[in-house]
Model the fold of this input.
Amino acid sequence: MSTFEPEQTAAELLAEVTRLRAENERLRQRNATAQARAAQALSRATRLAQVVSVLGQLTDVDEVLDRAASEIAELFGADILVIWLGTRADQPATAWGMRPGAPPPVLSLSEADTARLVEVPILVGPVAECSVPEAVRAYEPAHVAWIRLSHRRDDLGTMLLVRRADQPFDSSDTLELRAVATRVALAIDNGRLQRRSQERLERLERLYERTAQLVGMLELGEIARLLASVALQELPVTGAEICIERPGAGAEHAASGSLAGDGSTEGAGDAAVRRAPLTLMEPATGWLGVADLDEDDSEAVDLLHHIADLANLVVGKALLFDATRTQAQYDAMTGLANRALFMDRLEESLQRARRYQHLVGLIFVDLDKFKQVNDTLGHAAGDELLVTVAHRLRDAVRATDTVARLGGDEFVVLCDRIDSTENLRVLAGRLSTRVQEPATIAGQEMRPGASMGVADTETSGYESAVLLAGADAAMYEDKADRRRR
Amino acid sequence: MTVPQLDAGTMGVGHSGSPDPRQAARECVQAALAGRTPQPGDLLVVFTTVGEDVPAFFDEAAAAAGAATVVGCSAYGCYTTEAPGVGGCSAAYLPAGDLTFGVGTAESLGSDIAAATEAAVVQARADAGGSGEHDALLLMSDGLAGDQREVLRGAYRAAGAQVAIVGGAAADSLTQTGTYQYARGRTLTNGVVALWINSRRPVGIGVAHGWRPVGDLMVVTRASGNVVHELDGRPALEAYLEMRADAEAEFGAQDAPARSLAERLMDGPLGLPTTAGGYDVRHIFGEGPDGGLVMFGYVSDNAVVQVMTTSHDELLAAAQEATAVATRAIGRVSRGALVFSCTARLANLGEKVVEEGPAIARGLDGAPACGLFTYGEFGRSTGSSGFHNATVTVLAV
Done:
């Protein structure tokens, strides 16, 4: 502490004032320096909070990394900040400060640095002592910091900060970068979750649309094709196929993508095919198969079951529709077309015949002595006789002809596009011969008999009623003849 | 007026105080050319405060510049080292020499300022024929467009870490009604101009502000965009004024209660300590609706701030320092400099503003400079930040 003494001379006083001024200036400087240090320290201490605040303001998942990179680079005085996610070493998720269009930096840590980074989450040092990606070297880096990004023991990626100025990353930087890395990892993890949720939502919407489309479809082939394509599109698989088998009515098979071999065997070829059975209305059976499904991917397995459930629903509905349609158009006992279907086909056939001048013929068939079989052997025997005759008629005509049961023991054969009336008569004769072959009905040998009547458009014209009446009348003539014989 | 004899490579600067935009344009360009005929590839930069018919000013300047590439913007004030006044308009003519220039523009900056700037920079680089040995990027943006950090962010994204960035946010006469940018033969009002400079030798950038902190540190406890709502958990204006009162001695007689709030805000900006040990200064534009402070530029939540003060001498020393830093970086005798100076310096320098030109001239060892007063400066040579307030930012070639 300086004090003034009365005996001091003016020169001494002046010297003292000068000294005091200098001391004051020195103290002011020291104070300013201390204050600047405090400001710097506090500023550093709040960097993490600033990063948290910035990351918290971001809602768009895609923006998180780009924004985080620029903010962290700014707060830590870095020129370049690169983040690689997962194992994609040659494709950084963001490369802040690196010119777009230039080769992307490849995550290339020396073995020693990789090992060190497993032990500690952050490595800092001058470029001479640390790994530096080749693409970054062009930017004349001086100091680098490598940080492992992990969350709940999950390794999410790696972050690299580069300073071009000769300003080393110090212990305070290291400490704060560790904390920043944790926060960035959390943001990445949140981003991934959000992206996954978004993807799920979009998939749900797509499935909803597909479901709406599928439930409106009735044709099994179309349904199978769409289901196979939905499975391939929505599941992480290389191929999908669906097969629906109906004994007596054939099979529907559709495939999308690539499947091993012909898909008939599980695990054939390179791809393992997993089949989920479909629960269908008996006697139909079916399955949904996918190739290369990761069995540990529980989400994918659940989705496969969901698509199989959807297949059960829409295939079951189509099968039910098919059965209902069959009931409405076919005779339940003989499997032949019923009167309604026959009349539809007759009208269609006559229309075509009129337009293209074809000949259409009808053969009326009425069993002889059917009532007698019913009365003596019982109705079951009568039914057996009807089924036998029905099958014989169906087997004896062309695939394009329609054999229908009109009711009781009356049958009719619609022959589309015949060459002549004579051919029609030949066919009627052949049918008659076929019907009359011996048959065992209710354990008894018998020779069924049938009266036949033919009519065609050449003689009766294109009116269905006239044609039917013509064939009917001819049949009665035949029956009368047969009785007379 | 005497026409100085210049060697072929030296930057020529000119100034005019004419109120007629066309005459002003002709006068300042002719003074900058000093009898030389611009060649294709040469550059002419013009700044204007002439509020009447700004497009006519730029058109006339472009006509007078002949074959040179012309870029420019509106300003709150313009000067040259030879005409240190602050009004009128100024021009700088830079013969290409070993430099190659490319120009890009974007307008209607809208909500994605960064993307627009990025596009302008990509265009400028292509126009310059790609990257060179030592690239620099000069930006002139609409100072009323919004967060100017986004201009730098977009430019940096396109240019990368090797490119030095410099420039300023175009200003008006504080009416906040509209600014102008000019390039590629067009006057823009809400645009950004990017000038890519390819150089075989390093270009120099210097940034200094001359402000120092007073009082205690405060933490921004609530901020959104460019509004600081709370400091240390209290309404920001109240906390700020209290801090100023505590540091009254530092502001001296200037802080008399008679001065308006706007004046008191102008000479006491906030400083944000940087990790490198310096301060980024952010001027206060005014009082927010909830007792907050509306800032010139973005201030982050959790940022640390301090009230800043300065003096005329410190402000002028900063101009000389920024210029000296830029000149040192080029490592040779400078051909001249462009200076981007914060508009708030005018208010703080008062009549002493005429000394800014001479201070810069001292830093340039006699080479000429042409400057303007901006709504924010861009200056970046290392690190990825570089939007400034309250600075003198110098590009020396």
In short: The interface with chain A takes residues 131, 153, 156-162, 212-213, 217, 219, 272-277, 279, 300-304, 306, 382-385 of chain B (CB under 8 Å).
